[in-house]
Amino acid sequence: MWWGAARAGRIVIRVGAAQASQALRRMDSDTNWLHTALEVLSTEAGWRYAPQGPPACEPAALAALALAGHGRLDAARSACDWLLAQQGSDGSVGVYAGQAQPGWPTGWALLAWHAWQRGAASRHFQQAIDRAAAYLLAWEGKPLPRTPEMGHNTMLVGWPWVEHTHSWSEPTAINVLALRGVGQGRHARVQEGITLLIDRLLPRGGCNYGNTVVLGQELRPHVQPTGLVLLALARQPTADPRVAASLDWLHSAVHERLAAGPLAYALLGLAAHDRLPGEWAAWLPGAAARVCARSWGRHVLALLALAALAERSPLVGVLEGSER
After folding, report:
1. Apex CA 173: angle with CA 285 and CA 143, to 5°?
2. Cis peptide before 102 (omega within 30 of 0)
3. Vertex 152, ends 149 and 157: CA angle to 5°?
4. SS3 content of the chain, % helix, strand, coil (to 5)
5. Residue 293 phi/psi, 5° resolution?
6. Which position among 23, 244, 263, 324 has the lowest Cβ density within 10 Å, counted as fewest Cβ atoms?
7. What is the mean pLDDT of each run of 10 residues along the chain (324 residues)?
8. What is each CA distance from 74 to 5, 45, 79, 116, 295, in whole angstroms?
9. Residue 275's domain is classified under what CATH number?
10. Residue 217 belongs to what H/E stretch?
11. How far apart are the C-alpha atoms of 253 and 244, rounded to whole Å?
12. 299: containing domain
């Protein structure tokens, strides 16, 4: 079933799962990996975590962002329409159709609707964006009492993965980025989220899922959350040395053989700060081929397509002139 067409009542390009599979098999020999990736993302097959799984909201939103960024607005609209059908009465967007909670994909859906509207010069999804933003501003992580065993400030409130749990770096970064993108950057919730993201950076640079020092031991940084957090912190004035140290660490940690998801997030974070390595574009075809060689995680093609846009990616450009 082509979910977006049913809701939108429009004729869209329909590419079946078999055609998407054929496109993926051509990836190794296809010099235009990006064209093949966008073909896949234009179908429901690109909105899944696994081939036999149901469409999911994070992959659909990433596909819409990538397609809108590359000017394929009709295909992006179909994914956006499907996401609209998943939005709950409270403004949240769950993980799958029929699964309203947890609502952590809401920020991704907001970013997708916003990107399509910018590309189409339309306000078609504005009501959905407003409802999603209101939900995110009301949704809080659970603060915890300060203890000497935990190095980060556990009283700061950002966003959790799941209701009534502690705030973590990645969901906070997604929602800070989304809310900054729709003009809520000066809201107290967003400002506290930015403070949290900086607080969760490691003393020597980089971050992980959201812990810094535990039982006296400094934890190790991870590439993917560091890229996402630096993306959310782009164009945000700060004198905190951990931000510069994190950029230096990420620039030194990124390389051609990284897994495709972490590579894409790293490149997006570096692009947002004008720190891309010189050879970055040559790394993407191999990363795409590695994604297509496996039977799961094809939605990561959307991240690679977004990374291919560098500073023109809607995830970077969303911050242009957005603060008020």
Report:
1. 145
2. yes
3. 125
4. 55, 5, 40
5. -80, -10
6. 324
7. 29 42 52 90 93 94 98 98 97 94 97 98 98 98 92 96 96 98 97 98 95 89 98 93 97 97 98 97 96 88 98 92 54
8. 10, 16, 9, 9, 27
9. 1.50.10.20
10. strand 217-218
11. 14
12. 3-317
State residue 103 phi and psi, 5-degree precision: -100, 25
Q: Which two tokens stand for residue 321?
A: 């002139």
Half-sphere exposure of 9 (CA within 13 A, CB side): 0
Which pTM value belongs to this model?
0.90
The helix/strand/coil state of 66 is helix
User: Quick one: CA dihedral 286, 292, 293, 297, positive or negative?
Assistant: positive
Q: What is the pLDDT of residue 10?
A: 31
Whether the CB-CB separation of 279 and 272 falls below 8 Å is answered with: no
Count of positions (residues) in the chain: 324
List the one residue out of 52, 47, 134, 53 whose CA is nearest residue 90: 134
93 vs 53: CA distance, rounded Å:
18
How many distinct structural domains can be found in the chain?
Answer: 1
- Is 53 inside a domain boundary? yes
CA count, 13 A, side-chain hemisphere, 305: 29
